[in-house]
Amino acid sequence: PDAAPYVHADELRTAFALAMSHMYRNEVALYGDLVRIVQGVNQSALLASGDESQANNNTMPDSPERLSLERHGAIRLGLPSELRTVRRIFALLGMYPVGYYNLAVAGLPMHATCFRPITTTSLARNPFRIFTTLLRPELVTSEGGTRDLALQLLSRRSLFSAELLSLLDTAEQRQQGRLYADQAQVFIREALRTFSWASGVAASTVDECARLRAEHPVLADIACFRTAHINHLTPRTLDIDAAQRAMVSEGMAVKERIEGPPRRRCPILLRQTSFLALDEPVHFPSEHVSLGDLDDCQPRWEERSLVQGSHCARFGEIEERGAAVTAAGRRLYDELLAETTAAVNVAAKGRKYDEILSDTFRDSYPDDLRELCRRRLIFCRYRCKGKQPTRMPPDFAALLGQDTTTSTELHDLMDKHEEAVIGWAQRLVDDGVLVAEPITYEDFLPFSAAGIFQSNLQKTSSTTTSTSIDNAENSNQTGSPPSVMAQGGDQGSLEEALGCPITDPDVLYAQAQKDSLLECLLELGVTKA
Ligand code: OOG
Ligand code: NI
Description:
Radius of gyration: 25 Å
CATH topology of the largest domain: 2,3-Dihydroxybiphenyl 1,2-Dioxygenase, domain 1
Bound molecules: 2-oxoadipic acid, nickel (II) ion
Low-confidence stretches: 55-60, 459-482
Strand order of the largest sheet: 3-4-5-2-7-9-8
Distance between the termini: 57 Å
CATH architecture of the largest domain: Roll
């Protein structure tokens, strides 16, 4: 077996994302329509602008199909042990936890991280990520035992098949943590079961589901099912405004507004919109049955009588990504968002918000690549335009103090005087020696995520027993005190659940920028004096 080739994590991730896309299109027909719309919009955008529209995304010129591939999905987990195993699954796919998101600020009893590739090469091969939330039961504080009910339901399920767990063990025992091709196929098939809708058979009774919904719709979504069903997938669009219009004109119920920054010449961060979650049929068992592992779910359910109900959680989203911003760029973004919110009359939403947002950003957030770089608002990747011997400014030469310019010296210079080197690089950009390209933002935005959550959880669905559902709707809309209070984050406990630290995204962007600069200096054959 030693001679058989392992499947590379990047390839495995690509295969997994494709399989997941296929599964989700089968499960949610409207999602298939969304993918078609996005491909059409991307095709037109490419035709209209040549390759310019891709200039900010650091990718090779590509076909509309490849361009429109899914860029992310999202799952919601209930228990630390579930997250721990999910981390192992994603590690095999070359996806690692990056960034901490405290969703309690939006009244959700959850926190999250994003599993994604972390190297420039892997990101270029396939940037697919999964936004993964974990329940924080300690934030569900209301009387009435809903927290205990949720935990009880969760403790009875197992998200992972025996075959999947054994493949994880096998892969982890090997040095590279990889699988052979035949094992990879089984791995993807079994992993997909964990994230599938599982025929919409619930793991709770209809009444239990209603009780959890009344507390918070997301509690029901997390605790009442056998699987950690993917709740949306998100292809990339080159023109999100056009895609949103196309979705509306096809009659889709679409989120009121596009989350994130306004449309700009130099896109930053992430813009997202979605069609609203669908009310889908669910079969609830009429009584409790003891649940074995995932493998024996089907036969047992079929023996029981099932009650027809529904559940509203799954949707389809699209995204458009721009430059990763520095801490300063992020502060400015957050300030302008807050300014916009303050300026918007509480009653006026939609168009009005968007106009104010555009105005606020136009006045205060530079929309010119040179200015964004000069003010250190975005991270850039530097590239040599052509080789030409370049002299180091005398002050740098003095810092190094010798005649030769070795790679170790340049490393040293970068480490100790990075800010100054960036300034120098920008002069070289002005002189036409280097080119600066924005580094694509690969992460998420907490306020946008909260907006996406909220627009898809507002609608509580109806079931055959409707009284408590009506109560749920009321409690969400009448300003009664929220059961989940805004709370600080708890990154430590999420890391403990994961069993590993969470990487700070800014460290990755800064490293990518620095690596590119160093490469340029070496390639230029920089000399002193
Ligand atoms: C995750 C929402 C966050 C995004 O694009 O911001 C997200 C969820 O609904 O579970 O995917
Ligand atoms: Ni999303």
